[in-house]
């Protein structure tokens, strides 16, 4: 067997594997013997079919299968041993001729896409900005109010104010202002006047008391929205299209959502029993929580800046464009040529970043273990619970949710990639010179605006 590797450019190569019958004949004979043990043909008992007959009937298929196995072993074994820095998978060359398995020599030709060579190593001479978000008292106030809002409750009140929900009897009026006989009526019609689109109709509820009657025009209130009117009045959307009359509305009930008070019970609900014992401690805990969350945002931004810095330093790279497009087509058999053309540039940018990360991971010696990925899944789960104001979820629940994420292939791949980047961000902070800057959340968010 002969293997030849020839670079056709700095980023492409041609690999040829030549086999003679002696290279694979023993494997074919062994496979025939194994096949004979279970083969059953008419007129022969299982295991008694003559080898010559099997070779005549199935020899070509068995030879092709064994040659393919040997080819794969030698191909990938060579690439590993020679440490070929390859992109994607080897492709059958466009020069490849049909294989005649009766021939004395079989030649297999592969096109290999090679990674461009560059240096992404970082040192203390490299300067990269690192942004710390300033957590102000106003931001803490907002988060405290958000917690109080999520921990609030509904209660019945006697008079209406902005944001309240009202429930009562609604009845269609005639032109004289009297209840229309046979007109539209509905008990327990529920409204949120704050969501009216017409300010005049909205103002009619200001200070309104329970058990009082107000005249409203639902069509004006909802700007003739058939969906809103059908829901309010209990009629079809087609019927709602023609509703333009005034209605009387008797307010039977007013419900208000009241934010939670900053009591010990509330502190225990948010951060666990006894962990916070005063409003000052609660605010301090909220601030620390925000700072921790923003620190992750800062590290995320830091890695973006590392990427931009290195891409600029490395400059334009040469890529085996034709080969990579062929690989994209092979990996996306259900997509057309336009898909490849539309997505090629974006895939190249991500491929470059992937190669950069590989060098940085090698430089810093980071490794991703199963526990690291699980911790990323738990961190993501905590963030999801926190969105609903659940900051004190038991660790067992967090772990169970996280393990469910790891069972899904697409989520697992994303978590592994996120874990690599998280560990890289931490490690690289000790490598480069940080240009530290404290910024407002508004200025930090502007960093992500497209240039």
Describe this entry's structure for a reader.
By secondary structure, the chain is α+β, with helices and mostly antiparallel strands. It folds into three domains: 2-114, Alpha-Beta Plaits (2-Layer Sandwich); 127-144 and 266-446, Trigger factor, domain 2, CATH 1.10.3120; 153-258, Chitinase A, domain 3 (Roll), CATH 3.10.50. It contains 15 helices and eleven strands. The protein has helices at residues 21-38, 51-81, 137-150, 199-203, 218-221, 226-233, 237-240, 264-271, 279-314, 321-331, 337-364, 370-386, 395-406, 409-428, 441-446, and strands at 2-9, 12-20, 86-92, 105-114, 127-133, 153-157, 165-172, 185-191, 213-216, 247-258, 433-439. The strands form three sheets. Strands 6, 7, 8, 9 and 10 form a five-stranded antiparallel β-sheet that branches. A four-stranded antiparallel β-sheet has the order 1-2-4-3. It has a two-stranded parallel ribbon with strand order 5-11. The two termini are 56 Å apart.
Note the topology.
Blueprint: E1 2-9, E2 12-20, H1 21-38, H2 51-81, E3 86-92, E4 105-114, E5 127-133, H3 137-150, E6 153-157, E7 165-172, E8 185-191, H4 199-203, E9 213-216, H5 218-221, H6 226-233, H7 237-240, E10 247-258, H8 264-271, H9 279-314, H10 321-331, H11 337-364, H12 370-386, H13 395-406, H14 409-428, E11 433-439, H15 441-446
Parallel strand pairs: 5-11
Antiparallel strand pairs: 1-2, 2-4, 3-4, 6-10, 7-8, 7-10, 9-10
Helix pairs in contact: 1-2, 3-9, 9-14, 10-11, 11-14, 12-13, 12-14
């Amino acid at each position: 067997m002969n293997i030849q590797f020839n670079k056709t450019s700095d980023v492409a190569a041609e690999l040829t594997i030549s086999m003679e019958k002696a290279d694979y004949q023993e494997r074919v004979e062994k496979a025939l013997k194994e096949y004979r043990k279970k083969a059953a043909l008419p007129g022969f008992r299982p295991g008694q079919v003559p080898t010559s007959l099997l070779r005549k009937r199935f020899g070509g298929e068995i030879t092709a299968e064994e040659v393919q196995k040997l080819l794969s072993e030698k191909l990938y074994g060579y690439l590993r041993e020679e440490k070929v820095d390859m992109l994607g998978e080897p492709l059958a060359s466009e020069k490849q001729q049909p294989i005649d398995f009766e021939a004395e020599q079989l030649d297999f030709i592969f096109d290999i896409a090679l990674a461009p060579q560059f240096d992404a190593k970082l040192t203390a001479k490299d300067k990269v900005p690192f942004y710390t978000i300033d957590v102000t008292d106003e931001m803490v106030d907002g988060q405290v109010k958000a917690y109080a809002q999520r921990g609030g409750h509904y209660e019945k009140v006697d008079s209406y104010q902005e944001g309240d929900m009202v429930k009562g009897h609604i009845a269609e009026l005639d032109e004289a202002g009297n209840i229309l006989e046979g007109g539209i009526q509905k008990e327990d019609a529920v409204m949120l006047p704050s969501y009216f689109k017409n300010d005049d109709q909205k103002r009619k509820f200001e200070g309104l008391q329970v058990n009082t009657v107000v005249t409203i025009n639902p069509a004006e209130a909802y700007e003739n929205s058939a969906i809103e009117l059908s829901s309010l009045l209990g009629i079809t959307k087609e019927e709602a299209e023609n509703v333009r009359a005034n209605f009387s509305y008797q307010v039977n009930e007013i419900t208000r959502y009241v934010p939670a008070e900053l009591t010990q019970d509330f502190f225990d609900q948010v951060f666990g029993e006894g962990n916070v014992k005063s409003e000052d401690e609660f605010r301090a805990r909220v601030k620390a929580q925000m700072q921790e969350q923003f620190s992750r945002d800062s590290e995320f931004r830091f890695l973006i800046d590392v990427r931009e810095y290195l891409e600029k330093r490395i400059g334009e790279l040469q890529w085996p464009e034709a080969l990579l497009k062929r690989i994209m087509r092979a990996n996306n058999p259900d997509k057309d040529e336009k898909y490849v053309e539309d997505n090629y540039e974006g895939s190249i940018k991500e491929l470059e970043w992937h190669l950069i990360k590989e060098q940085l991971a090698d430089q810093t010696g980071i490794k991703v273990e199963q526990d690291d990925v699980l911790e990323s899944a738990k961190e993501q789960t905590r963030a999801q619970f926190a969105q609903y104001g659940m900051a004190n979820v038991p660790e067992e629940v967090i772990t169970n949710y996280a393990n469910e994420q790891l069972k899904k292939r697409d989520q697992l791949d994303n978590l592994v990639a996120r874990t690599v980047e998280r560990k890289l961000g931490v490690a690289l902070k000790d490598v480069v010179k940080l240009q530290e800057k404290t910024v407002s959340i508004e200025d930090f968010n502007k960093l992500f605006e497209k240039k």
